[in-house]
UniProtKB/TrEMBL annotation:
<dbReference type="InterPro" id="IPR036291">
    <property type="entry name" value="NAD(P)-bd_dom_sf"/>
</dbReference>
<protein>
    <submittedName>
        <fullName>2,5-dichloro-2,5-cyclohexadiene-1, 4-dioldehydrogenase</fullName>
        <ecNumber>1.1.1.-</ecNumber>
    </submittedName>
</protein>
<keyword id="KW-0614">Plasmid</keyword>
<comment type="similarity">
    <text>Belongs to the short-chain dehydrogenases/reductases (SDR) family.</text>
</comment>
<dbReference type="InterPro" id="IPR002347">
    <property type="entry name" value="SDR_fam"/>
</dbReference>
<dbReference type="Pfam" id="PF13561">
    <property type="entry name" value="adh_short_C2"/>
</dbReference>
<keyword id="KW-0560">Oxidoreductase</keyword>
<dbReference type="GO" id="GO:0016491">
    <property type="term" value="F:oxidoreductase activity"/>
</dbReference>
Amino acid sequence: MTDIPRVDFNGKVAFVTGAGSGVGRATALAFAKAGASVAAVDINEVALNETAAIIRDAGGKVLAITCDVTKGEQVKGALDKTIEAFGRLDAAHNNAGIEQPAQPIGDISEELWDRIISVNLKSVFLCMKYQIEIMLKQGSGAIVNTASGAGVLAIRNQSSYCASKFGVVAASKVAALEYAEKGIRVNAICPGIIDTPMISRYTNDTDEGRAFMIAQEPIGRMGRPEEIAGTVLWLCSDAAGFVTGHAMIVDGGQTAGI
Ligand code: NAI
Protein backbone atom coordinates (compact mmCIF):
# COMPACT_ATOMS: atom_id res chain seq x y z
CA MET A 1 0.00 0.00 0.00
CA THR A 2 1.33 3.52 -0.82
CA ASP A 3 2.13 5.71 2.19
CA ILE A 4 0.23 8.98 2.54
CA PRO A 5 2.79 11.86 2.72
CA ARG A 6 3.21 13.34 6.20
CA VAL A 7 3.35 16.89 7.49
CA ASP A 8 7.05 16.77 8.32
CA PHE A 9 9.57 19.58 7.90
CA ASN A 10 12.75 17.92 9.17
CA GLY A 11 15.68 19.23 7.13
CA LYS A 12 13.45 21.87 5.52
CA VAL A 13 13.52 25.67 5.71
CA ALA A 14 10.49 27.89 6.30
CA PHE A 15 10.16 31.69 5.98
CA VAL A 16 7.34 33.41 7.91
CA THR A 17 6.43 37.12 7.85
CA GLY A 18 4.53 38.81 10.64
CA ALA A 19 6.23 36.26 12.90
CA GLY A 20 6.26 38.60 15.91
CA SER A 21 2.58 38.19 16.74
CA GLY A 22 -0.67 36.28 16.31
CA VAL A 23 -0.96 33.97 13.31
CA GLY A 24 2.64 34.48 12.15
CA ARG A 25 4.10 33.65 15.54
CA ALA A 26 1.95 30.51 15.77
CA THR A 27 3.06 29.42 12.28
CA ALA A 28 6.76 30.05 13.01
CA LEU A 29 6.47 27.98 16.20
CA ALA A 30 4.60 25.21 14.40
CA PHE A 31 7.18 25.01 11.59
CA ALA A 32 9.99 24.82 14.16
CA LYS A 33 8.16 22.12 16.10
CA ALA A 34 7.70 20.15 12.87
CA GLY A 35 11.49 20.19 12.36
CA ALA A 36 12.05 23.17 10.05
CA SER A 37 14.75 25.81 10.36
CA VAL A 38 12.71 28.99 10.51
CA ALA A 39 13.47 32.46 9.13
CA ALA A 40 11.16 34.58 11.28
CA VAL A 41 10.50 38.04 9.82
CA ASP A 42 8.78 41.08 11.32
CA ILE A 43 9.08 44.87 11.43
CA ASN A 44 8.74 44.79 15.24
CA GLU A 45 12.15 43.70 16.51
CA VAL A 46 11.11 43.31 20.16
CA ALA A 47 8.14 41.07 19.35
CA LEU A 48 10.22 39.13 16.82
CA ASN A 49 12.94 38.45 19.39
CA GLU A 50 10.27 37.08 21.75
CA THR A 51 9.14 34.64 19.06
CA ALA A 52 12.75 33.62 18.39
CA ALA A 53 13.36 33.05 22.11
CA ILE A 54 10.29 30.80 22.39
CA ILE A 55 11.54 28.71 19.46
CA ARG A 56 15.12 28.49 20.80
CA ASP A 57 13.91 27.60 24.31
CA ALA A 58 11.94 24.72 22.80
CA GLY A 59 15.10 23.50 21.01
CA GLY A 60 14.14 24.81 17.56
CA LYS A 61 16.28 26.49 14.91
CA VAL A 62 15.45 30.11 14.11
CA LEU A 63 16.90 33.20 12.47
CA ALA A 64 15.17 36.45 13.46
CA ILE A 65 15.18 39.01 10.64
CA THR A 66 13.87 42.52 11.20
CA CYS A 67 12.35 43.68 7.92
CA ASP A 68 9.67 45.97 6.55
CA VAL A 69 7.92 43.77 4.00
CA THR A 70 6.73 46.79 2.00
CA LYS A 71 10.34 47.50 0.93
CA GLY A 72 11.70 45.40 -1.91
CA GLU A 73 15.37 45.69 -0.94
CA GLN A 74 14.59 44.65 2.65
CA VAL A 75 12.56 41.63 1.50
CA LYS A 76 15.37 40.57 -0.85
CA GLY A 77 17.85 41.09 1.99
CA ALA A 78 15.78 38.90 4.33
CA LEU A 79 15.70 36.10 1.76
CA ASP A 80 19.46 36.47 1.12
CA LYS A 81 20.04 36.08 4.88
CA THR A 82 17.79 33.01 4.91
CA ILE A 83 19.82 31.35 2.17
CA GLU A 84 23.13 32.34 3.82
CA ALA A 85 22.00 30.79 7.11
CA PHE A 86 20.06 27.73 5.96
CA GLY A 87 20.98 27.15 2.29
CA ARG A 88 17.49 26.70 0.84
CA LEU A 89 13.82 27.69 1.05
CA ASP A 90 11.07 25.08 1.09
CA ALA A 91 8.06 26.86 2.56
CA ALA A 92 6.98 30.47 2.82
CA HIS A 93 4.08 31.97 4.74
CA ASN A 94 3.61 35.58 3.60
CA ASN A 95 1.39 36.72 6.40
CA ALA A 96 2.28 40.21 7.71
CA GLY A 97 -0.71 42.49 7.56
CA ILE A 98 -2.54 45.38 9.19
CA GLU A 99 -6.19 46.13 9.87
CA GLN A 100 -8.25 48.98 8.48
CA PRO A 101 -10.26 51.06 10.96
CA ALA A 102 -13.99 50.69 10.15
CA GLN A 103 -14.78 53.49 7.68
CA PRO A 104 -16.87 53.87 4.52
CA ILE A 105 -14.84 54.32 1.33
CA GLY A 106 -15.65 58.02 1.08
CA ASP A 107 -13.97 58.68 4.42
CA ILE A 108 -10.75 56.76 3.73
CA SER A 109 -7.71 58.99 3.16
CA GLU A 110 -5.40 58.39 0.22
CA GLU A 111 -2.57 57.73 2.69
CA LEU A 112 -4.53 55.03 4.54
CA TRP A 113 -5.59 53.34 1.27
CA ASP A 114 -1.96 53.26 0.06
CA ARG A 115 -0.73 51.94 3.43
CA ILE A 116 -3.23 49.07 3.60
CA ILE A 117 -2.56 48.01 0.01
CA SER A 118 1.19 48.29 0.54
CA VAL A 119 1.42 46.23 3.75
CA ASN A 120 -1.23 43.64 2.88
CA LEU A 121 -0.84 43.21 -0.89
CA LYS A 122 2.38 44.72 -2.25
CA SER A 123 4.31 42.82 0.44
CA VAL A 124 2.90 39.54 -0.86
CA PHE A 125 4.06 40.45 -4.38
CA LEU A 126 7.54 41.36 -3.14
CA CYS A 127 7.88 38.21 -1.04
CA MET A 128 6.70 35.94 -3.86
CA LYS A 129 8.94 37.70 -6.40
CA TYR A 130 12.14 36.94 -4.48
CA GLN A 131 11.02 33.57 -3.06
CA ILE A 132 10.13 32.27 -6.52
CA GLU A 133 13.60 33.24 -7.79
CA ILE A 134 15.08 30.88 -5.16
CA MET A 135 12.48 28.14 -5.61
CA LEU A 136 12.95 28.10 -9.40
CA LYS A 137 16.65 27.27 -8.87
CA GLN A 138 15.66 24.46 -6.51
CA GLY A 139 12.81 23.22 -8.70
CA SER A 140 10.55 23.04 -5.65
CA GLY A 141 8.79 25.10 -2.99
CA ALA A 142 5.42 25.93 -1.47
CA ILE A 143 4.03 29.38 -0.71
CA VAL A 144 0.98 30.27 1.37
CA ASN A 145 -0.22 33.88 1.40
CA THR A 146 -2.53 35.11 4.15
CA ALA A 147 -5.71 36.56 2.68
CA SER A 148 -8.89 36.63 4.79
CA GLY A 149 -12.61 35.98 4.73
CA ALA A 150 -12.43 39.59 3.54
CA GLY A 151 -10.69 38.22 0.44
CA VAL A 152 -13.80 36.38 -0.69
CA LEU A 153 -16.60 38.41 0.88
CA ALA A 154 -17.47 42.12 0.68
CA ILE A 155 -17.53 43.61 4.19
CA ARG A 156 -19.09 47.02 4.80
CA ASN A 157 -16.60 49.69 6.02
CA GLN A 158 -13.62 47.55 4.98
CA SER A 159 -13.03 48.57 1.36
CA SER A 160 -9.24 48.93 1.45
CA TYR A 161 -8.80 45.78 3.56
CA CYS A 162 -11.13 43.78 1.26
CA ALA A 163 -9.38 45.17 -1.83
CA SER A 164 -6.01 44.12 -0.42
CA LYS A 165 -7.19 40.62 0.51
CA PHE A 166 -9.15 39.96 -2.73
CA GLY A 167 -5.86 41.02 -4.35
CA VAL A 168 -3.89 38.47 -2.32
CA VAL A 169 -6.25 35.71 -3.50
CA ALA A 170 -5.90 36.84 -7.12
CA ALA A 171 -2.09 37.15 -7.03
CA SER A 172 -1.82 33.71 -5.37
CA LYS A 173 -3.99 32.03 -8.01
CA VAL A 174 -2.17 33.67 -10.92
CA ALA A 175 1.25 32.76 -9.46
CA ALA A 176 0.02 29.18 -8.97
CA LEU A 177 -0.80 28.95 -12.69
CA GLU A 178 2.50 30.52 -13.71
CA TYR A 179 4.75 28.21 -11.68
CA ALA A 180 2.82 24.93 -11.32
CA GLU A 181 4.97 23.24 -13.98
CA LYS A 182 8.15 24.33 -12.20
CA GLY A 183 7.35 22.48 -8.98
CA ILE A 184 6.22 25.55 -7.02
CA ARG A 185 2.79 25.49 -5.36
CA VAL A 186 1.05 28.72 -4.32
CA ASN A 187 -2.09 28.90 -2.20
CA ALA A 188 -3.88 31.49 -0.09
CA ILE A 189 -5.43 31.00 3.32
CA CYS A 190 -8.60 32.87 4.27
CA PRO A 191 -8.96 32.92 8.06
CA GLY A 192 -12.18 33.89 9.81
CA ILE A 193 -11.98 35.84 13.05
CA ILE A 194 -8.85 34.78 14.87
CA ASP A 195 -8.07 35.75 18.46
CA THR A 196 -4.88 37.77 18.00
CA PRO A 197 -3.60 41.23 18.99
CA MET A 198 -5.08 42.51 15.70
CA ILE A 199 -8.58 41.60 16.85
CA SER A 200 -7.90 43.01 20.34
CA ARG A 201 -7.03 46.33 18.72
CA TYR A 202 -10.00 46.21 16.34
CA THR A 203 -12.48 45.56 19.18
CA ASN A 204 -10.72 47.94 21.61
CA ASP A 205 -10.43 44.77 23.68
CA THR A 206 -13.95 45.25 25.06
CA ASP A 207 -16.40 42.45 25.96
CA GLU A 208 -18.97 43.99 23.60
CA GLY A 209 -16.47 44.14 20.76
CA ARG A 210 -15.45 40.51 21.23
CA ALA A 211 -19.10 39.43 21.50
CA PHE A 212 -19.87 41.26 18.21
CA MET A 213 -17.05 39.36 16.47
CA ILE A 214 -18.01 36.00 17.98
CA ALA A 215 -21.63 36.51 16.88
CA GLN A 216 -20.38 36.30 13.26
CA GLU A 217 -18.93 32.84 13.86
CA PRO A 218 -21.40 29.92 13.52
CA ILE A 219 -18.96 27.82 15.54
CA GLY A 220 -19.56 30.16 18.51
CA ARG A 221 -15.99 31.27 19.19
CA MET A 222 -13.00 32.93 17.56
CA GLY A 223 -10.37 30.78 15.92
CA ARG A 224 -7.01 30.21 17.58
CA PRO A 225 -3.81 31.23 15.74
CA GLU A 226 -2.65 27.60 16.00
CA GLU A 227 -5.68 26.53 13.96
CA ILE A 228 -4.45 28.68 11.08
CA ALA A 229 -0.86 27.53 11.57
CA GLY A 230 -1.95 23.89 11.29
CA THR A 231 -3.57 24.54 7.92
CA VAL A 232 -0.58 26.53 6.65
CA LEU A 233 1.76 23.66 7.53
CA TRP A 234 -0.51 21.18 5.77
CA LEU A 235 -0.68 23.39 2.65
CA CYS A 236 3.15 23.66 2.60
CA SER A 237 3.66 19.94 3.20
CA ASP A 238 3.98 17.01 0.80
CA ALA A 239 0.53 15.93 2.03
CA ALA A 240 -0.87 18.81 -0.05
CA GLY A 241 1.31 18.02 -3.09
CA PHE A 242 -1.66 18.27 -5.51
CA VAL A 243 -3.09 21.47 -3.99
CA THR A 244 -2.24 24.72 -5.78
CA GLY A 245 -4.16 27.85 -6.74
CA HIS A 246 -6.57 27.32 -3.85
CA ALA A 247 -7.94 29.94 -1.45
CA MET A 248 -8.56 27.82 1.62
CA ILE A 249 -11.23 29.12 3.97
CA VAL A 250 -10.61 28.33 7.65
CA ASP A 251 -13.32 30.32 9.38
CA GLY A 252 -15.58 28.39 11.72
CA GLY A 253 -18.35 28.58 9.12
CA GLN A 254 -18.37 32.40 8.92
CA THR A 255 -18.71 32.41 5.13
CA ALA A 256 -20.48 29.03 4.73
CA GLY A 257 -23.83 30.66 4.05
CA ILE A 258 -22.70 32.80 1.11
P1 NAI B 1 -1.13 40.76 14.37
O1 NAI B 1 -1.29 42.24 14.36
O2 NAI B 1 -1.26 40.01 15.63
O3 NAI B 1 0.29 40.38 13.70
C1 NAI B 1 0.71 40.98 12.51
C2 NAI B 1 2.22 41.08 12.51
O4 NAI B 1 2.63 41.66 11.26
C3 NAI B 1 2.79 41.96 13.61
O5 NAI B 1 3.80 41.27 14.33
C4 NAI B 1 3.33 43.16 12.88
O6 NAI B 1 4.47 43.75 13.51
C5 NAI B 1 3.69 42.55 11.52
N1 NAI B 1 3.80 43.58 10.49
C6 NAI B 1 2.92 44.59 10.25
N2 NAI B 1 3.40 45.38 9.27
C7 NAI B 1 4.59 44.85 8.87
C8 NAI B 1 5.56 45.22 7.90
N3 NAI B 1 5.41 46.31 7.14
N4 NAI B 1 6.65 44.43 7.75
C9 NAI B 1 6.82 43.34 8.52
N5 NAI B 1 5.95 42.95 9.47
C10 NAI B 1 4.84 43.71 9.64
O7 NAI B 1 -2.18 40.22 13.28
P2 NAI B 1 -2.75 38.74 12.99
O8 NAI B 1 -4.14 38.72 13.43
O9 NAI B 1 -1.80 37.72 13.43
O10 NAI B 1 -2.79 38.81 11.40
C11 NAI B 1 -1.89 38.08 10.57
C12 NAI B 1 -2.46 38.09 9.17
O11 NAI B 1 -3.73 37.45 9.17
C13 NAI B 1 -2.70 39.49 8.59
O12 NAI B 1 -2.37 39.49 7.21
C14 NAI B 1 -4.20 39.69 8.76
O13 NAI B 1 -4.73 40.59 7.83
C15 NAI B 1 -4.69 38.26 8.53
N6 NAI B 1 -6.00 37.96 9.08
C16 NAI B 1 -6.24 38.07 10.43
C17 NAI B 1 -7.49 37.76 10.92
C18 NAI B 1 -7.82 37.86 12.37
O14 NAI B 1 -9.02 37.75 12.70
N7 NAI B 1 -6.88 38.05 13.28
C19 NAI B 1 -8.56 37.30 10.02
C20 NAI B 1 -8.18 37.15 8.66
C21 NAI B 1 -6.94 37.48 8.21
